[in-house]
Specification:
The complex is a heterotrimer of chains A (about 200), B (about 300) and C (about 675). With about 200 residues, chain A is mainly α. Chain A has 11 helices and no strands. In chain A, helix 8 crosses helix 9 and helix 8 packs across helix 11. Classes of the chains: A mainly alpha (about 200), B alpha/beta (about 300), C alpha/beta (about 675).
Chain lengths: ~200, ~300, ~675
């Protein structure tokens, strides 16, 4: 496995932490590029998936900073085309998940990823209090976060007319459990951060 | 009767309510009995696993545990995204005892891991051919593109679909109700999934390719089994048309709607009026489906 | 009273750095029966061996224990040293202080104590050793070669030219193997058939070679120098003596659309067929699964038109028995088909072909007479994509190893295409170019520099058909890992080379080890690459691992030389480590009760019945007797014998108990 010496602050490298936390070894990647060839968004990414794997293998602090600041990790759609075809069975979607939460935690998010993250956060906010996703609430929350107030305006009345938009959320009985699940999982999340 | 636990998922209560409506509408005639899991919660979708891994395990785990509590053996998950989350989480938890215990603690319920998660196609493909044939009033004699998308068939090692790169099982169901299916290139390509709101441009690009290929190869309708696929191909049609610089009138139907039409259920009951792209199918001369359902040669090889 | 000498070797630092060898030697001197004990840096060296020899002479030793490396390594060395002094070599034993002790433990007192224990155990054993004498067995000077590809042909010719008899068995109707299917060969681009077919003819005409084609090994028994084999000669439905090879039968056969195996499915053959015009022997076979007569009981067109009356519909398989002294395995390899690849269309696209199919397209004897035409519509492709590592180095869906030959043949394929279609574009998707070999790298450079073959470093994620073109979606990892899309007319997959069909079954039949991929295992990866773990059975060619022609031929000649060396002796000696059924004085004769439970348990069929009779011929009892020629000393019968009447020489129950009790 990777060494720790490259990092001046004594942190474990990303590759080591990926191995420890999600049990995936980036060193299995032999850079064939099949993931980048099949990824529906590799053209839009700053680093296509195979390049990101190579960067993880390098284990230098500078490159790792670039990984966490990349747009790639937020563009990944988790469509799992890469893992379905990877000859070395490197679970890139799982690694992407790890890198996203790491990037958020270290506050190194790519500026363009703001909208995507706002969407995810609005989504989670919506279920945190009610237990289920409330689409109108999600969109409202998203617009509030991003100020994209005018976007998607034309489609909303159409949806409403077709009975697809529910104005009021449904609260499940176990909503307090859901809140506790959020509290516990985010405590863990922050706990891991504090350990470092 | 096939008794199945039912997890509709959030979309089926909102933007994809016609999926829920059409599934319930056909369930009686096709011998499926749905038992909705009481007090189910959202699976967390891509938002949870993008942001917090534990949360992305805990939310589906609660759903699975609730179903287990009801002594259900199988749970039908029509939404492909929810199906993928639930099945992947089930797999992850049963293969790691420590994790299973930790997550059970978080959700305040014991998840045992003995429930099976099945998707809509699997449930529909179990309907016996003869039984279905008798029920068909208006054979669905259209040329269709069966669009599986990504989450239904992947990751292949976990969800265990028939053929990861060229699945046939949805095609086989459609052939049973009289449709012709095309062999096309975008069967399992991604539509843009959860970027519907945040990166509509990407959705337009990816979904545009899918619609273009389906139309080019002569499809009269696209058949889907996922609310995200449906909303990207249907609701985002104007963005797609703007990007591609041309109009596409091809309707996008949930597989349950297509079956419903074949069974003679009204458009209204199937929620066809809820689509953005009007469901106008070319008029066909009515004939009774004569041909015996023959599984495709490809499927036989498997 | 025993007089045992103990010799502890330091093995340089291998043992000496971890075990206190001096202390081991010193302690052993206190063990009853030990009269001499010493340690030395390199006991296997000449001075080391001298120490043993001198001690035996001076102290009149009755047994020797050498505490050193593995007996697999140096037992013969030390036993030879003992024998030179006149001590029976089987009175010398080795304690494995290296693999069993110093290599697996840290330096510590307890490690030294373990070394002492190991040595003491062998001392107790050797006290009970009996002098044993090697067994001599005769050698049959005939070799069996299985597989008639270039490997089997070369081995057969080498053995035959050394003056020994050879039986060559080939499963297919003709010898020639994969090499006969190839177009031109790298790195010289000489025509494969032109260099192979003369050898095939030589095999057929060689006075020392008996050729059985369309035949398979049915069974084998015996041991080195003395195998008995049964060969199943499958019914060709042709009287080989009468057939003139005129080929009229093939012209008249009405079943004409059977995919030709020789053309890798790209051309057709008839139900009665010769695989290719240059086949050896040039005698057809009737493929019973496709012949109208065998299926429906009617037709017999071939019989009607055969001018030599050679058709024999009622011919049956024949079993031929033969005695052979050695076996050469040369059963070759196979390539996986295009249906293996989900992302490349599950074999549904006609214009996605394997490298072997491409060889047939490029071959002058192939279905297109050497013109590169795509299978779907016969058009000459303007753009060809070659994909290396299709199934190789693919832990997920294929095999993990490198198939080794593909880099070179793919370069050759692209080169041949460019030579034949001057305006065509050839792309090769590759991960690494492995061109280690004489003139190999130069060959690849020639493809790039002179023939402008476009190498793209990356793998292909997907292929699909669109408007008659194959859309190949790959990536270029040398251009920022960006996706590359090529509209191709033909795609050639360098599919993985795998073990041949039936390899596992054959290996089990021959008691030869094989690896997880069913390639036959060599006895030692470096020092015994052509031998198997079963004495007398040798390997040649791609049945051991994927190999190109030069390597196959080299190994085949190696195997041939091994066989010739074996056959240079009239008899072999083998270790007397065999089981014996005890004999005692009358009236008991033997404690064996004649239950013969041991007989079916013996994996080598070495147990016979022996009748003990009185002088006037009256039967007293029937007891088991072990054929020392067949016995391999595995000890199964010893463990099974209920009356404890069988012992393994050199490893008797008494010796084993003493050894264990000393630990």
């Amino acid at each position: 496995m990777a060494g720790e010496s490259n990092h001046h602050n004594g942190d474990k490298t990303l590759s080591v932490r990926i191995y420890e936390q999600v049990n995936e070894s980036v060193f299995r990647c032999y850079q064939c590029g099949k993931c980048s060839a099949g990824c529906p968004l590799s053209e839009d990414m700053d680093y296509p998936p195979s390049q990101l794997m190579r960067m993880l293998q390098l284990e230098t602090p500078e490159v790792e900073a670039n990984i966490l600041r990349s747009y790639t990790i937020w563009l990944c759609l988790t469509c799992e085309t890469c893992i379905a075809r990877c000859p070395q069975e490197v679970d890139i979607p799982k690694i992407m998940d790890f890198l996203r939460s790491e990037s958020l935690r270290r506050k190194k998010v790519h500026p363009s990823a703001k909208d995507i993250i706002s969407f995810h956060k609005s989504f989670l906010d919506s279920i945190k209090y009610t237990g289920r996703l409330h689409e109108v609430g999600l969109i409202a929350g998203y617009k509030f976060r991003t100020y994209h107030l005018l976007k998607d305006l034309p489609v909303a009345p159409k949806l409403f007319l077709r009975g697809k938009l529910k104005l009021f959320p449904h609260f499940i009985k176990g909503k307090s459990v859901i809140s506790r699940i959020f509290t516990k999982t985010f405590r863990e999340y922050k706990g891991k951060e504090a350990e470092k | 009767m096939m008794r199945l636990g039912y997890f509709p998922g959030c979309s089926l209560l909102g933007t994809a309510r016609e999926y829920d409506e059409s599934l319930r509408a056909i369930s009686h005639k096709t011998g499926i009995e749905l038992f909705e899991i009481p007090d189910w919660n959202c699976c967390g979708a891509s938002a949870a696993h993008c942001i917090n891994h534990d949360l992305s395990l805990a939310l589906p785990a609660r759903i699975l545990a609730l179903a287990e509590k009801e002594k259900l053996e199988e749970i039908l998950v029509p939404c492909a995204a929810c199906f993928n989350r639930l099945d992947v989480v089930r797999h992850e938890l049963i293969s790691d005892e420590k994790l299973r215990q930790r997550i059970s603690g978080i959700i305040e319920m014991d998840f045992q891991g003995n429930i099976k998660v099945i998707n809509i196609i699997e449930a529909l493909s179990r309907i016996p051919s003869d039984g279905l044939k008798e029920q068909i009033l208006k054979p669905f004699q259209y040329t269709v593109a069966c669009y599986y998308g990504c989450l239904l068939v992947r990751p292949p090692k976990i969800v265990n679909f028939d053929r990861a790169e060229d699945p046939q099982i949805m095609d086989d169901v459609m052939k049973k109700i009289g449709a012709d299916t095309i062999d096309w290139a975008y069967k399992v390509e991604c539509c843009g999934a959860g970027f519907s709101v945040s990166r509509t441009d990407i959705v337009a690009k990816l979904s545009g390719k899918i619609i273009k290929d389906a139309v080019q190869r002569g499809a009269e309708a696209i058949i889907v089994a996922c609310p995200m696929c449906h909303s990207n191909l249907d609701m985002r049609r104007s963005e797609i048309e703007r990007l591609e610089g041309r109009k596409y009138s091809i309707p996008v139907l949930y597989i349950t709607q297509a079956i419903g039409l074949a069974l003679g259920i009204s458009n209204k009951k199937l929620g066809l009026h809820r689509h953005i792209v009007p469901v106008k199918l070319p008029l066909k001369v009515k004939t009774v489906v004569e041909k015996e359902f023959v599984p495709t040669a490809k499927a036989e090889e498997e | 009273m025993s007089r045992i000498g103990v010799f502890i070797c330091h093995c340089g630092e291998n043992i000496g750095a971890t075990v206190d060898c001096g202390k081991v030697a010193e302690t052993c001197l206190n063990i009853p029966g030990v009269v001499h004990s010493e340690d030395y840096k390199y006991m296997c060296s000449d001075p080391g061996q001298n120490l043993i020899r001198e001690a035996i002479r001076e102290k009149n030793l009755t047994g020797v224990v050498v505490g050193a490396c593995s007996p697999r390594m140096h037992e013969p060395t030390f036993r030879r040293a003992c024998a030179e002094t006149g001590l029976n070599p089987f009175l010398c034993e080795m304690a494995n202080l290296r693999e069993h002790c110093s290599w697996v433990h840290e330096k510590a007192d307890v490690t030294t104590r373990k070394a002492i224990d190991l040595t003491r155990m062998l001392i107790e054993k050797v006290k009970r050793n009996q002098p044993l004498y090697p067994i001599k067995v005769p050698v049959t000077h005939t070799a069996l070669v299985i597989g008639g590809g270039i490997g089997g042909i070369q081995a057969s010719l080498d053995i035959a030219n050394a003056g020994h008899k050879v039986i060559l068995v080939e499963r297919d109707p003709s010898i020639g193997g994969h090499m006969a299917q190839l177009s031109e060969t790298f790195p010289t681009l000489d025509c494969s058939q032109c260099i192979l077919t003369p050898r095939m003819v030589e095999v057929a005409q060689h006075p020392n070679i008996t050729l059985y084609t369309y035949s398979e090994l049915e069974s084998i028994s015996g041991f080195i120098g003395n195998f008995t084999v049964e060969i199943r000669k499958k019914a060709r439905s042709i009287d080989e003596k009468l057939c003139t090879g005129c080929g009229i039968c093939m012209q008249k056969c009405p079943v004409k659309k059977i995919p030709s195996e020789f053309n890798a499915g790209l051309g057709n053959r008839t139900a009665i067929y010769v695989p290719f015009p240059q086949a050896v022997p040039n005698i057809p076979v009737i493929d019973k699964s496709n012949c109208t007569y065998y299926i429906r009981g009617k037709c017999k067109a071939c019989e009607k038109f055969c001018p030599a009356d050679a058709i024999r519909f009622d011919q049956e398989d024949e079993i031929i028995e033969a005695d052979v002294g050695a076996v050469v395995l040369a059963t070759g390899f196979d390539v996986v088909g295009t249906g293996f690849f989900p992302e490349y269309g599950y074999g549904n696209y006609k214009d996605v072909i394997t490298g072997l199919q491409y060889e047939r397209l490029a071959s002058a004897s192939g279905p297109t007479l050497g013109v590169i035409k795509r299978p779907s519509d016969g058009e000459i492709p303007e753009t060809v994509v070659f994909i290396a590592c299709a199934g190789s180095r693919d832990a997920a869906k294929g095999i993990e190893y490198c198939s080794k030959i593909c880099c070179m043949y793919t370069a050759k394929h692209a080169m041949l295409y460019k030579h034949k279609v001057h305006n065509g574009k050839a792309y090769i998707f590759y991960m690494d170019i492995r061109a280690g070999g004489k003139m190999y790298e130069e060959f690849v450079r020639r493809a790039v520099e002179e023939d402008h073959v476009n190498y793209i470093r990356g793998r292909v994620s997907r292929i699909y058909e669109e408007n008659g073109k194959l859309i190949v979606k790959g990536a270029d990892t040398l251009m920022g890992h960006k996706p590359v899309e090529i509209k191709a007319d033909l795609v050639v997959l360098a599919t993985a080379g795998v073990a041949n069909k039936g390899a596992e079954e054959l290996a089990q039949k021959l008691h030869v080890s094989y690896d997880p991929y069913y390639f036959f295992a060599e006895a030692h990866p470096k020092l015994r690459p052509v031998e198997t773990n079963t004495a007398g059975i040798f390997l040649a060619g791609a049945c051991q691992a994927p190999k190109d022609i030069p390597e196959t031929v080299a190994q085949a000649s190696g195997a041939g030389s091994k066989v010739a060396a074996l056959f240079s002796q009239s008899e072999l000696t083998r270790e007397p480590v065999v089981a014996v059924v005890n004999r005692t004085a009358p009236p008991v004769f033997s404690t064996c009760v004649g239950c013969f439970l041991c007989q079916p348990a013996c994996p080598y069929q070495a147990i016979e019945k022996e009748e003990i009779k009185t002088r006037d011929g009256k039967l007293i009892k029937v007891v088991a007797k072990i054929n020392e020629g067949l016995c391999q000393g595995c000890g199964t019968c010893v463990a099974l014998c209920r009356s404890k009447s069988i012992d393994l020489q050199g490893f008797t129950n008494e010796q084993m108990y003493a050894q264990i009790m000393a630990s």
